[in-house]
Amino acid sequence: MQFASLDDIRAFCRDLARGDAGAAGAAARRQQVLTKPPGSLGRLEELAIWLACWQGRELPRLDHVAIAVFVANHGVVARGVSAYPPEVTAQMVANFAGGGAAINQIAKTAGAELRVVPIELDRPTHDLTVRSAMDEEEFLHAVDIGYRTVPERCDLLAVGEMGIANTTTAAMLCAALLGGGASRWVGRGTGVDDEGLARKRAAIEAALGFHRGILGDPLAVAAGLGGRELAAIAGAVLAARQRRTPVLLDGFVATAAVLPLVRLQSSILDHCRAGHVSAEAGHRALLREFRLDPLLDLGMRLGEASGAGLAILLLRAALACHNGMATFTEAGVSDRDG
Amino acid sequence: MQFASLDDIRAFCRDLARGDAGAAGAAARRQQVLTKPPGSLGRLEELAIWLACWQGRELPRLDHVAIAVFVANHGVVARGVSAYPPEVTAQMVANFAGGGAAINQIAKTAGAELRVVPIELDRPTHDLTVRSAMDEEEFLHAVDIGYRTVPERCDLLAVGEMGIANTTTAAMLCAALLGGGASRWVGRGTGVDDEGLARKRAAIEAALGFHRGILGDPLAVAAGLGGRELAAIAGAVLAARQRRTPVLLDGFVATAAVLPLVRLQSSILDHCRAGHVSAEAGHRALLREFRLDPLLDLGMRLGEASGAGLAILLLRAALACHNGMATFTEAGVSDRDG
Fold first, then answer.
1. Are the CB atoms for B292 and B310 separated by under 8 Å?
2. pTM of this prediction exceeds 0.90
3. Are B185 and B175 within 8 A, CB to CB?
4. What ipTM did this prediction achieve?
5. Predicted local distance difference test score (pLDDT) of residue B337
6. Is A94 an interface residue toward B (CB < 8 Å)?
7. Strands B247-249 and B156-162, how do they pair?
């Protein structure tokens, strides 16, 4: 296992790999001489420079792009917090395997390899309103699965999840680590009605009370109040950081999954961008907390890495412009005020 | 010529082709049974239904996608309204032909055919501060070029432009037809300094005074205060409407180009979506005026159909999900509250 204890993760986060400032500088200088007014490609320019920074080359590549979707089940589903029954989690894994889900189509469109990673679907986390969702060993095991999922050769990684009831888990982590009570973070997820929404809030308030002794410890919260797929996402983000692989985060659940890491080390997301902002209630506030400006805002709330997968397309365009455009000199175009 | 007079355009706008409500309804019903919570793909769902509506089939296609970039020169450049010299317009046409511009890379990424249409670059419009930019015949000729640019077989058209000084022309049309004075609509374009900005405002105020007699006639404004590439975009949007081809509009200039048509007939943009909102000052206000919600907001301000071209990628993903996803029944996934 990559991490034998929570302390190993803490130590890892104290000594993070850094981007290549030289490559970023070279990419930024290149953007200044391409045949366009400086800055006129907006965030496409920033994205190309960010890819250059983490890939360590002035001309980045996107030859090997992976989408990782982690899947797990949640004991809190017993509290009536989802509009769908828990067996849908396994059914959707079969749908992913059969190529029938949204992320299958998006991965194909984006030219990305899709890795779906179900984690002990027949062993949901415990109901976090009455005990720890996972013990330390179970948590580290899930982190490790995520860590090992990141391919050796990977120019860009998009991370997402699927798991019936996991917007409750995500809201749980936010309420535990950022405060503001359940209402600030709870949304309708896959589409619960008002009663379902009230049950989500009640479950979170109950869990906050039960676990009040650990709320000051981000990793204890990630284990005791989290989920296996969220832990795996954290593991994948750590592995990507170690290899300097740029990462696109998906929606509310995938973003909440890295919150415990951010509480340990605020610079942990330097190699990450928010693929989109979800319509799920808490996501916009969470991104603001992380000072992440989402690339897309299309009212999506599906998960499955669908928003992050879509953002891969924007990175492909940013890269095509950065690598393929002519400079003013090459094209014989007069520069400004010329 | 498609239109022998301004009255022909007025008549055309009174009797517009309509979308296929049956196909749109079938597509909307399909979205309800795909393996995702209803509505969870957000605007991707709406976009698929919109494509179905205008293409007239439940399962739309994007086999033939075209990007049209219209290019022209502007007499108002003599007023010092651009950071770049006017010869850049022709130089950029050569850059498009050589494949070195941003839109070349974006078109390739989006799988679109790029059509660059320079319009009489050696005959700039007249300086609109002291006379009509175009007479009626010149205007109709430019509209006709745009009309004829739309390919017979075209599943989707993105329209954009290039022309040194044309953000001044675009702001001109907005100020003339929507009011609020020059300041409401003028921005830095390719990056003018404060003095350049003041010169843009002055040119527009001067033209508003000179042309005050025609401000109530949208097409007279389009001719007298517009530009050839803007007229061509209007022509292309009319041709696309006739053929029920869905259209993605690009930034401030391309959107301002259709403003005269909107003043004739508010439903003229039903077959159009805004590819993005530009960082150019007036674009957001203009889109709000049109009640168009842009698909992207990435701080771009290049023109060349770059934002609309990027949005093609989102449509490809929307279509892939709509056409490729399994239904709940096909995938054996339990539906909600199951």
1. no
2. yes
3. yes
4. 0.97
5. 59
6. yes
7. parallel
